[in-house]
Structures are given as C-alpha cells and as structure tokens.
Amino acid sequence: MNASPEKMLASARAVAEGRVNDVALASGSLLSMVEHLTALNLNTARAALDDTIVLQQSICAAREPRDLLAIQVGSITPALKRGFDYGKSASGIASLAQVELFKLVEAGMSQWLQGVIVTLETLNRAAPGSELAVKVLKTAVANASSAYEGASEVVKQVSEVAQANADQAAAVAVDAVSKTTSATVSLFKSAA
C-alpha cells in the first residue's frame, strides 16, 4: 500500500479542519467567559452604586460626629466582603475558562497524537523494513503523551491548592477586619 500524495493531503486537510473547529470552540468558550465576567462587573457596579447611595443617606442622617464616624468605620467590612465575593466570583469564572481550555487542548493533543500514529503506520506500510524506526517513534509519541498528561495533572492540582489557600486567607482577613471594625464601632457608640 502506497501513501499517495492525495491521501497525505486529505489527512492534512482533516487535521487542519479539526484545528479550525478547536479554535472555534475555544473562541466560543472564551466569549462565554467574557460575557459572564461582564455581567459580574455590571452587577457589582450596580450594587456598589446602591450601597454608596445608602451610605450617603446614612451619613446625611447622622446627627452626632461619633455616629458619622461609626457609619464610616462600619462600612469597611461590607465593602471588604463585597470585594472578596467579587474576587471569588471572578476567580471562579477564570477557573472555569481554564478548565474549558484545558479540555480543548487535551482533546486536540489526543487527536493530533492519533493522527501521528496513523501517519507512522501508513508510512510503515509504504516503506517496508522501517518497523524499528516506526516503533521508536511510536514509543516517543507515547512517552510525550504520558509526560504531557502528568504535567497537566500537576498543574491542575497546584492550581486547586493555590485557590483553596487564597480563599482561606481572604476569609480569615475579612473575618479579622470585621471583628476589628465591629469593636471600633462599639467603642465609638459607647463613648459619650
């Protein structure tokens, strides 16, 4: 069986079409993530505007300087919590985009490796006596595939641990600031 130029071109064309489809899927996925991030930004901006209006009304209604100071200090914790929630939501969107892109890359790599193996087998049939070279190349492809899978698994695990640590540290910081501002507000209210 000969590997005719027409067969090789057809194979290359199929691979190219596959890559175009992969890019289209990645573009759609990224566009969806941008839409989610835009919606998050708009909702956060609306909430911040609403909170600013309420804060300004509270400040205008304050009759004593200590009440004014208590309102201002008391606004720190909710603002910090909103910032933490925003960061966590944005991080979730970014993580989802990363997972989607990893899936696409892994699928593309798998298809590419299958194409390489098919090409090697076709060349082996076209060139009798090249079994050893084809076997060596197949082993190299299998080793590269295994190394890629191992590296991507390590990257996923490191990313998950880093995200969990960042979330925990931020929650502890928000809690500490909340306790401190609550104590400060209580101190201002009790001072006569």
Oligomer: single chain
Number of domains: 1
The number of distinct β-strands equals 0
Could you tell me the mean pLDDT?
A: 81
Q: Summarize the amount of helix as a percent range.
A: over 70%
* Shape label: elongated
Biggest sheet statistics: none
State which percent range the strand residues make up: under 5%
Along the chain, the helix and strand elements come as HHHH
Organism: Thauera mechernichensis
Pfam family, one: Phasin_2
InterPro entries: Phasin (IPR018968), Phasin_subfam-1 (IPR010127)
Protein name: TIGR01841 family phasin
Throw out a few tags for this protein.
mainly alpha; Phasin; 192 residues
Record the SSE blueprint.
Layout: H1 5-61, H2 65-74, H3 76-126, H4 131-190
Helix pairs in contact: 1-3, 2-4, 3-4
Domain Phasin: 15-107
Protein name: TIGR01841 family phasin
Pfam family, one: Phasin_2
Description:
This is TIGR01841 family phasin. Residues 15-107 form the Phasin domain. By secondary structure, the protein is mainly alpha-helical. It has one domain. 93% of the residues lie in helices and 0% in strands. The radius of gyration is 29 Å and the shape is elongated.
